[in-house]
User: Which sequence fits this backbone?
């Protein structure tokens, strides 16, 4: 491992993540986006911050409380790191609500969608709301008092609540109570109105309007909404965990009741009320966030974005491309004919599901092996695997239980697969299995043939519609043999030996990437063609970054598409002048990992499940695989060139770690690579029809 880099050469990971979240936030203010897409970006920012607090901020705060004095690769100690981070979070939250009040609410009002103040309810709306509250809401509510005979209740993490102050006898301290806004009820209540109007109230507003009905015989002095976030970083000793499934199930219960790391309130909340909650939650002012609007803005995407009849306020719909041969019943013949490439969501995810469904039904298929990391709530992938087992196929699934925030979902699917007769492996001790691979073993004309799918993204039909990922279906026998060896390693926890085409983490991938980068440096020093073009979600690993610096200093031109965190600092004199970094934040979440090396004129192209992060290279089971088909190579390289040329949704990372929109420097109409990909599929569909 390389020595820690000097601070001027390495950006702090958490601050870089905040810069990414800021780029997402800027899309909520981007006039190129329809209003319903703006509210989606605004919601994503809130969801991102929730997870960031529960894991990254929580971990950093634990370091401070443990008096850890070490520094991160950027040179920051935990306390100064946390101070800088919280200041940036506050700036970003303030910006989020400024966009909400100055852009989002006015634009929604222009479309006759608006929040109604209770004082402005019409007589008809008030009567309807009264009936709705007593019929639908009141029976679900449970007020909980806090007094001499009642301890402060445990408040569920990320639940929205209403704190209530109650009058007690003169000379005595006022009492306090709390009411949880039930998650089973819709947060957005649409009021009756004339055609074309959509007046709404938020559920917490409705409950506060009727709060007196919950405390009969008592005087309610005030009521204010609040929300807490708890430490959700699961930690347990796998060496001591004899049953990983039971251990994770127990840890999930603890996640709901971890220590409070954030308290959110509205700006009109009085200090006395805030002080009471701070004492009850055992937090300080640094963990209190007051916002100028509704708490937690994820309701925009969950409810308002889902309003029917507003398609004109969203991105135009599109139909993913499907190759005709892959919809036929003989999908195995189509794969045997040539490798098949997919670039989701532009190319449909359906052929991957069909591949599994065909394997489940095909009498000649003997076995199916697959890794699963995150799957959807109604997963057709899991259903196909269960069907295959029920039809007598040998089905082995490595289902990663430690996929953060998907643990419960994966436990559910694991139990379903086991009931169907699948052999389920619940991850490997000390590692997360993040690779994306399917192996289908089929008997054809008396011989065994292997069909393999390899991808950069999860086997999730829902996210495949909004995440850009790449994958291959191949009948290459050498890749199939590698896949067999890989699954044997997973099922036996054996050591991974060298394979012909596949390279696996945690032992092989780091040295392989370093070898490929160093090889480019050597080519440059010898005057041969040398260039690195790579695309990933995050670039964090110090050793990889140092290798890239050395390659760039040797003359290698390096172009990096890094959607999220980037700790490398490009364009720094005498350090990284040959390195440029772009980040695309657009309609789809860029998720593919692509690595291209000029290799002295004999170029090599790889796809992978791994980012350049320590966790991917050292603590996960990942796969890197080559693109061998010349036509697929050209398609991917064209995509890489299109993305590098993007001036509509791309940002350029500067030497000072700040990002600037490339659209500012665009001479002509900004070029949108994602839109261009969609147009290519439309042209292809039209050509197929003709």
Assistant:
């Amino acid at each position: 491992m390389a020595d820690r880099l000097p601070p001027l050469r390495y950006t702090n990971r958490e601050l870089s993540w905040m810069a990414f979240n800021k780029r997402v936030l800027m899309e909520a203010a981007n006039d190129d986006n329809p209003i319903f897409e703006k509210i989606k970006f605004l919601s994503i920012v809130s969801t991102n911050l929730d997870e960031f607090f529960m894991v990254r901020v929580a971990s950093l705060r634990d370091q401070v409380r443990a008096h850890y004095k070490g520094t991160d690769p950027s040179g920051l100690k935990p306390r100064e790191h946390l101070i800088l981070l919280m200041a940036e979070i506050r700036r970003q939250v303030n910006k989020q609500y400024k966009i909400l009040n100055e852009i989002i609410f006015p634009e929604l009002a222009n479309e006759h969608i608006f929040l109604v103040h209770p004082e402005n309810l019409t007589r008809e709306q008030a009567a309807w709301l009264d009936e709705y509250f007593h019929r639908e809401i009141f029976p679900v509510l449970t007020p909980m008092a806090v007094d001499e005979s009642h301890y402060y209740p445990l408040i569920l993490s990320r639940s929205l609540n209403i704190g209530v102050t109650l009058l007690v006898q003169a000379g005595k301290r006022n009492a306090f109570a709390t009411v949880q806004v039930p998650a089973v009820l819709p947060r957005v209540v649409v009021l009756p109105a004339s055609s074309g109007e959509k007046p709404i109230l938020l559920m917490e507003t409705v409950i506060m309007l009727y709060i007196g009905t919950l405390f009969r015989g008592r005087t309610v002095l005030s009521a204010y909404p609040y929300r807490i976030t708890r430490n959700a970083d699961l930690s347990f000793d796998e060496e001591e965990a004899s049953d990983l499934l039971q251990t994770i199930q127990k840890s999930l219960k603890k996640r709901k009741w971890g220590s409070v790391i954030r308290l959110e309130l509205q700006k009109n909340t009085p200090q006395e009320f805030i002080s009471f909650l701070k004492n009850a939650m055992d937090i300080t002012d640094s963990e209190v966030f007051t916002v100028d609007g509704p708490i937690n803005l994820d309701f925009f995407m969950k409810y308002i974005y889902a309003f029917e009849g507003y398609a004109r306020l969203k991105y135009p719909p599109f139909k993913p491309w499907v190759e005709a041969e892959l919809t036929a019943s003989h999908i195995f013949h189509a794969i045997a004919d040539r490798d098949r490439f997919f670039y989701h969501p532009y190319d449909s995810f359906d052929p991957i599901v069909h591949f599994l469904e065909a394997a489940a039904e095909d009498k000649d298929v003997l076995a199916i092996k697959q890794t699963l990391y995150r799957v959807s709530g109604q997963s057709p992938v899991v259903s196909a695997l269960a069907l295959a087992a029920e039809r007598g196929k040998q089905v082995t699934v490595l289902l990663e239980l430690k996929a953060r925030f998907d643990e419960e979902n994966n436990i559910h699917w694991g139990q379903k697969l086991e009931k169907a007769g699948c052999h389920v492996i619940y991850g490997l001790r000390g590692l997360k299995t993040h690779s994306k691979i399917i192996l289908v073993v089929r008997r054809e004309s008396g011989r065994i043939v292997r069909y393999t799918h390899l991808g950069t993204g999860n086997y999730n039909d829902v996210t495949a519609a909004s995440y850009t990922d790449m994958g291959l279906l191949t009948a290459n026998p050498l890749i199939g043999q590698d896949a067999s060896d890989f699954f044997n390693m997973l099922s036996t926890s054996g050591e991974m030996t060298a394979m012909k085409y596949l390279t696996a983490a945690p032992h092989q991938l780091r040295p392989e990437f370093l070898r490929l980068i160093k090889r480019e440096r050597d080519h440059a020093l010898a005057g041969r063609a040398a260039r690195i073009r790579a695309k990933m979600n995050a670039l964090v690993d110090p050793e990889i970054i140092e290798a890239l610096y050395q390659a760039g200093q040797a003359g290698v031109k390096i172009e990096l598409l890094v959607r999220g965190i980037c700790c490398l600092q490009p364009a720094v004199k005498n350090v990284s002048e040959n390195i440029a970094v772009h980040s695309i934040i657009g309609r789809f979440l860029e998720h593919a990992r692509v690595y291209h090396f000029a290799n002295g004129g004999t170029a090599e192209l790889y796809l992978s499940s791994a980012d350049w992060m320590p966790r991917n290279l050292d603590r996960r089971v990942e796969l890197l695989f080559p693109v061998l088909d010349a036509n697929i190579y050209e398609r991917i390289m064209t995509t890489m060139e299109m993305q590098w040329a993007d001036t509509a949704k791309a940002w350029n990372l500067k030497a000072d770690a700040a990002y600037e929109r490339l659209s500012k420097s665009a001479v002509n109409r900004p070029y949108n690579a994602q839109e261009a990909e969609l147009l290519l599929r439309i042209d292809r569909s039209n050509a197929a029809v003709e």
Notes: The mean pLDDT is 91.
